[in-house]
Amino acid sequence: MTPIINKEPESGEDPLRRMNLREDVLEICYWYQGEGFGDRFSAQSLKTFLNSTPDAIVAALERLADEGALMREGASYVFTPEGKKQAGRLFHETFADFQVGTHGECTAGCCESEGDGDQDRGRPGNHPRTGPPK
Fold it and tell me: Which pLDDT value is given to residue 121?
């Protein structure tokens, strides 16, 4: 028996690249479904969004199925309940910084350039508290 530590990666790529592709595939599947493109995933449907070969994408989909994040259904894959949660967490972690409002999208008076509001003007971006006063 060959020790696992000396085993060559199956796809010829380094393990870190394979792990990153696995996470990218999960995030793309989550986004793909959220955008209404469908709930079935294949290398063909995902290749436009990934900088990888179709064979590498298939290998990532297969690993995700083996791990229980996806299930095979015919020639495509679908999320398992746990896989969808995992994909959602990864997606949120990756894109949380992009989900904040920009100038002009915040409540009245929250920016230094606006004339009224009850926040501390010395702290840019200090948004007034929402909800009932404590």
Answer: 46
